Amino acid sequence: MFAPAAASAGAGAVFALPLHVGAVRVGVLDLYRARPGGLDGDQLADGLLLADIACALVLDAVQHERPHPDGRRPEPASLAYPQVHQATGMVTVQLGVSAAVALVRLRAYAYAHDRRLHDVATDVVARRLRFHPKPDGDRGGR
Q1: Which of 35, 42, 70, 90 falls between 20 and 30 A from 9, CA-CA?
Q2: What's the pTM?
Q3: What's the rounded Cα separation, in Å, for the pair 135 and 101?
Q4: CA-CA-CA-CA torsion for 42, 97, 92, 140, nearest 10 degrees?
Q5: Recorded GO terms, molecular function (predicted)?
Q6: What's the Cα-to-Cα distance from 135 to each of 61, 103, 132, 139, rounded to whole Å?
């Protein structure tokens, strides 16, 4: 049912790109194009970059919508804190990933452990928390 409806709406091609942080799948980014055919290498790379950005935005939005257990308001924009910048740089080196991926990993860790991003970043900068690449090649945090 979907394919005929999509074609009648003008979609010549549909692409589904995963939104994930390490092995954790957050969702899917669906892209539509009027022209039929696949994506070339540059287009796929651009699409995957957009998926990474969308994933970071989704995680950021979820974190800002959740009230904290102690009743505090959700934290302001995560990049307002210098510790977040410093921790992002440290995780970049620890995992050998880009700054964008490192920030997504920090946000995912904070969300998964029900902590504020600022607090996780403070622990990274103080060297109480370190992210390690996993032996299977996944560069997630622990």
Answers
A1: 42
A2: 0.46
A3: 18
A4: 130
A5: RNA binding
A6: 31, 21, 9, 9
